């Protein structure tokens, strides 16, 4: 087997899935291009703001992709390339894309409300409160994992024997480029809001800014330690999670849309030109070093096939920017299929290395393995290796940073909603409730807990993140299925994904609880604290999950007239 064959098979499957399956769902659900969307109805210039399809697609794709579809398949490759490829394609089409589209559709039809509000409306207030608490804990895990990944791609130097040694030029270039990317995004936000220029000119300006960011990064790399980068990234996340979406979120996503799509196209073209051999075994074993294919492979791949986090983006931010209901299909369903394609490229990238080859070149993290493999593919086209490696790594960090912006904002909103009561007016709130619902307080408490977990390292929390992520998809399927039941719309194709994800998520959480409890026996001081915090999170998430699922299933299976 070679890379080109896998790429062609995957492309055909995903394109046909969009044309046949995605459009069929849109017809069955009665998508209406003439219906006013929440972006116009509730326009406030902060969260509700209509944006062009391309801008919302860029936001959706960059937010849901993050580092997940790259990290997940590369880590799951220990089971062989065949099971990983099968789950990426089947899961992406019948699980992930359906969930993302359903979440956005239901949100847009309910004034752009989040999945939490959908649960309150159609399952109950208690279900919403439990879901919001779960969602808040989950967002903390996502921020912790992705912030550590981004800080790792920016790390300025290697450490040998506890002492600083060589500078990492590629990381320094990516760090500078990413900083300039953010600066230019703010400038672009002002241009898009107040310039009133034609689309072609805005596009030209965005491309110039993108090229300028990369050029400055290559010539002026920044060398800062991992620990300092972790602090700086959290300061950035705090600011990004509270500013209006037009000031940073939309313009940076506008820039990202070109960078990220270009990265995937370059990766695909690189595979076609290099046609790498697949050196990874087709299948290894059901049990690899104590990790079982079920459920570990499913929760490890996560975002490349199905991710509950996507439902938060689809219903929490993107649904508030949709201009036309017809945009929902390409923005949600299309973004998920493109993410699956990225996961396929990541699988080909890791499979192209012989055993031990990546480590021998100093590429140890999934991001480095992916960037190194793709730059190797592009060398066959005569492109410079250093520039390609920097661009690919920049794109990965852009993925993760965009996810961090979105998930921090969602975590903040979840914490605020947890203490809001629709029966109490703002001016009648007590002092404590006002503090708890303050967006700055909510952001700080969310990010402080995430920062503590970041110091543990993303590898140590990825299993808990993956299991929680899959359980969140169960909530999304449940909430959307209950809404579709109320509206008497087709929903039978959501029941198999719901059942499978129930089995995967609770089994994985059970494994995580057992492993973390066992690890506490021999853990060091730092590891002990990290494992204890994760154990508390895991037990809390498991218990909350049971409660929400019971409430959701009771509504979904109910025969009463009130639920029809």
Quick recap:
73% of the residues lie in helices and 2% in strands. It is mainly alpha-helical and 564 residues long.
What does this entry look like structurally?
The structure is a single chain. 73% of the residues lie in helices and 2% in strands. A hairpin with a 2-residue loop joins β3 (287-288) and β4. It is globular, with a radius of gyration of 22 Å. It has helices spanning 3-28, 38-41, 53-65, 68-76, 81-108, 115-122, 125-154, 169-195, 199-219, 226-240, 249-274, 293-301, 309-316, 328-351, 357-360, 366-379, 385-418, 431-436, 439-454, 458-486, 495-519, 525-557; strands at residues 157-160, 163-167, 287-288, 291-292. α8 crosses α11 and α9 (199-219) packs across α11. The strands form 2 sheets. It has a two-stranded antiparallel sheet. Strands 3-4 form a two-stranded antiparallel ribbon. It starts with a helix and ends in a 7-residue tail after the last helix. It is mainly α. It has a single domain (3-563), classed as Amino acid/polyamine transporter I, CATH 1.20.1740.10. It contains 22 helices and 4 strands.
- Structural class, by secondary structure, is mainly alpha
Q: Which class in CATH terms?
A: Mainly Alpha
Mean pLDDT: 87
| CATH-defined architecture | Up-down Bundle
Q: Please state the oligomeric state of the protein chains shown.
A: single chain
Distance between the termini: 51 Å
SS field, number of helical segments? 22
User: What is the number of beta strands?
Assistant: 4
Q: What would you give as the CATH superfamily?
A: Amino acid/polyamine transporter I
C-alpha geometry: globular
**Widest beta sheet: strand line-up:** 1-2
Q: Helicity level, as a percent range?
A: over 70%
Integer-rounded radius of gyration = 22 Å
CATH topology grouping:
Amino acid/polyamine transporter I
SS strand fraction: under 5%
* Low-pLDDT regions: none
- Count of domains: 1
Largest sheet: 2 strands, antiparallel
Give helix and strand order, one letter per element, not per position: HHHHHHHEEHHHHEEHHHHHHHHHHH
């Amino acid at each position: 087997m070679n890379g080109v064959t896998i790429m062609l098979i995957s492309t055909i499957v995903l394109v046909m899935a969009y044309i046949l399956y995605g459009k069929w769902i849109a017809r069955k659900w009665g998508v209406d291009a003439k219906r006013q969307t929440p972006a116009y109805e509730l326009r406030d210039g902060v969260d509700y703001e209509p944006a062009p399809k391309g801008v919302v697609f860029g936001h959706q794709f960059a937010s849901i992709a993050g580092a997940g579809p790259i990290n997940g398949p590369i880590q799951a490759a220990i089971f062989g390339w065949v099971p990983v490829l099968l789950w990426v394609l089947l899961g992406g089409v019948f699980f992930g894309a359906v969930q993302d589209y359903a979440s956005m559709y239901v949100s847009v039809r309910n004034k752009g409300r989040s999945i939490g509000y959908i649960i309150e409306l159609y399952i109950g207030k208690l279900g919403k409160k439990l879901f919001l608490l779960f969602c808040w804990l989950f967002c903390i895990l996502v921020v912790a994992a992705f912030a550590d990944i981004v800080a790792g791609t920016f790390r300025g130097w290697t450490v040998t024997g506890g002492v600083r040694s060589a500078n990492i030029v590629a990381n320094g270039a990516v760090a500078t480029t990413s900083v300039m990317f953010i600066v230019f995004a703010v400038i672009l936000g002002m241009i898009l809001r107040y310039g009133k220029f034609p689309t072609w000119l805005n596009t030209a300006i965005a491309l110039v800014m993108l090229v300028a960011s990369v050029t400055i990064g290559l010539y002026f790399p920044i060398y800062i330690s991992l620990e300092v980068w972790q602090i700086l990234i959290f300061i950035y996340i705090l600011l990004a999670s509270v500013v209006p979406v037009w000031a940073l979120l939309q313009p940076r996503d506008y820039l990202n849309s070109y960078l990220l799509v270009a990265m995937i196209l370059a990766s695909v073209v690189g595979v076609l030109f290099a046609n790498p051999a697949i050196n990874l075994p087709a299948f290894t074993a059901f049990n690899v070093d104590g990790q079982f294919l079920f459920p570990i492979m499913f929760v490890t791949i996560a975002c490349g096939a199905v991710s509950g986090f996507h439902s938060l983006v689809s219903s929490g931010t993107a649904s508030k920017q949709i201009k036309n209901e017809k945009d929902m299909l390409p923005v949600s369903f299309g973004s998920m299929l493109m993410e699956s394609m990225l996961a396929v490229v990541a699988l080909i990238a890791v499979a192209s290395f012989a055993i031990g080859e990546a480590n021998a070149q100093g590429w140890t993290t999934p991001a480095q393995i992916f960037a190194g493999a793709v730059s190797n593919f592009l060398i066959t086209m005569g492109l410079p290796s250093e520039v390609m490696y920097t661009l690919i790594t920049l794109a990965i960090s852009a993925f993760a940073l965009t996810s961090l912006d979105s998930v921090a904002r969602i975590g903040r909103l979840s914490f605020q909603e947890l203490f809001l009561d629709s029966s109490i007016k703002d001016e009648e709130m007590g002092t404590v409730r006002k503090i708890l619902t303050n967006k700055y307080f909510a952001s700080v408490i969310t990010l402080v807990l995430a920062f503590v977990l970041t110091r543990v390292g993303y590898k140590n929390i990825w299993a808990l993140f993956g299991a929680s992520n899959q359980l969140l998809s169960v909530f999304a399927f449940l909430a959307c299925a209950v809404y579709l039941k109320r509206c008497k719309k087709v929903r039978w194709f959501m029941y198999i994904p719901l059942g499978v994800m129930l089995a995967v998520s609770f089994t994985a959480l059970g494994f995580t609880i057992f492993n973390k409890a066992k690890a506490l026996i021999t853990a060091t001081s730092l590891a002990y604290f990290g494992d204890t915090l994760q154990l508390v999170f895991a037990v809390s998430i498991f218990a909350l999950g049971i409660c929400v699922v019971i409430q959701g299933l009771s509504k979904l299976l109910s025969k009463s007239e009130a639920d029809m």
